[in-house]
Every structure is written in structure tokens, then in C-alpha cells.
């Protein structure tokens, strides 16, 4: 699926991911890959020569494929979405036919032919964030390292020594750099905000959304968005059950002696090592965030009814 073959292709399918975002379906939930079924092995990212694809599992053997020219988003500035097509699994083979392309996914290979007879071949890959497992620098405060949830109000670990979503740090912070690792569940039959919803709240006021947004457009209510305010520069979301990272640089809002805000909060966010928010001004608190005030605030790992887990959380305060 090289660029010269993809360029003539238009997104002709009426069904886009936004169209199925509101569908209702029973919500299967998987926390580990070895129990996630045959669809999990197919979903994910595929790369070939100057081309790539993201395969999104939709449950019951159904998939949506997003084809990219040049490479996956975040791997090259030239990455460009070119084609979308639906697919169906029968046994160990997934087939697709649409937008001028037909082919199959089997044994970790995505192969196909367009209506001009051009062929392409991609292989299944697994990306890993370059900051995964990052060690806290000198002077950092470790908020969670798998040994204790004592730094968190009502914090709980599971038997895998992971931190459940739905807790706030006991300590409050002003300006800081924060490292967080998170994992969303595999919920192939869920849609939209039901698909692994959580969030990292800065000062308990400003939410950086956590969601399984793999393969979606990258809106302000999807993963990496400053919730409802600012969409990410690109969708850097890995597939569900991948460990992902947020590295966040945060400057708190400023207030004068009378308590009037003089400067918005500012955040820079890297997801999986990819710059997705670049020194963005946050005009007000977001979602369920607390009102803006001069005082510092805690880090909240939002509980939103989904089994989202965190690990390796540390923070460096700026004095």
C-alpha cells in the first residue's frame, strides 16, 4: 500500500469510526491478552514499505482497518490517513473488500491488492513507548512504584501490584513534571466513552483524557485530549492492553493578590514519547475538575467505571 498507490483512493466508505461510536452492544472486558480471544491477536498495528495500518477490533469477529501512507502516526511527519475499510473474521482469517482494496489478515500478515492490481504486504508489530519504565530522577517524589498505595487517598493495588483508577494523591502540587504509565482494557464490543475511560487530572482541575482511542480521529474527548478543550496534535494511542505513557510538564494558573487569574495554566504532554500537546493554554478547569484557585492541588487518576490501571507514577516539583 505504497503512497503512489494510495493517493488516488478517497475515503468513500460511509461508515467511519465516529459513526459506530454510539452503537449499543454488550461490553466484553478483558484485562490480560492471553484471555482476550482470537480478535485480540488480529487487532493492532501493521507496517510495510512506506505504508501502515491500524486494525481495530469491534467484537464478534468484526474489525475496522485504517490505512496510512508513509507510516504509523507518530513515526513520521509524513504519515497520512488514506483509506478505511471494514473486515470480518472467519476462523483464523480476516478478509476485507472495499474502497478499491481487497485482501486478508492471517498469521500476523496483512496482504491485499487494489483494483489496479497493485499488491501490498504488512506485518504485525508492537510499539513500545521510549519512556516506558523511566526511572525517577534525583529529587523526584515517587507516588507509586508497585510497593504501596500509601501516597494515594483511598488508593488500592491489585494482586499484580498495579494501582486501580479512582484515587487522588494525598500531596498537592503547583508546577511540576509528571510521569504516568497506564493501561486500558480490551473492550471490543464497547464504543466511545465506554471503551476504557479514565483520566489524569492535574491539580484535580485539568483532565488529560485516558481512553482506548486506538485508530480514532484524535478529538478533545479522546486519549491525549485536554478534556473537552483541546484535541491532541495527533492520535498517539497504542492498542488496548498496551502499557502507555504520559510525560506531562505543567505550569499552574497564576493569580494576583486579589485572587484574580492573570495567566492560564499551561501543559505540554507527550504520549508514548510523542508530542501531542505543545505548551497549550488551558482556559478553565475541565470535565469534573475542581474550580481554579491559587492553591496547589492533587493528582487524580479518575475512576470512571472502567478497569484502567496505573504504574510507575512519579513527579518532580518545580520550585
UniProtKB/TrEMBL annotation:
Assigned keywords, A-Z: Signal
GO molecular function: hydrolase activity
Signal peptide: 1-21
Domain of life: Bacteria
Ranges for region Disordered: 280-305
The keyword Signal appears for this protein: yes
InterPro entries attached to this UniProt entry: AL/BT2_dom
3-keto-alpha-glucoside-1,2-lyase/3-keto-2-hydroxy-glucal hydratase domain location: 141-315
Annotated protein name in UniProt: 3-keto-alpha-glucoside-1,2-lyase/3-keto-2-hydroxy-glucal hydratase domain-containing protein
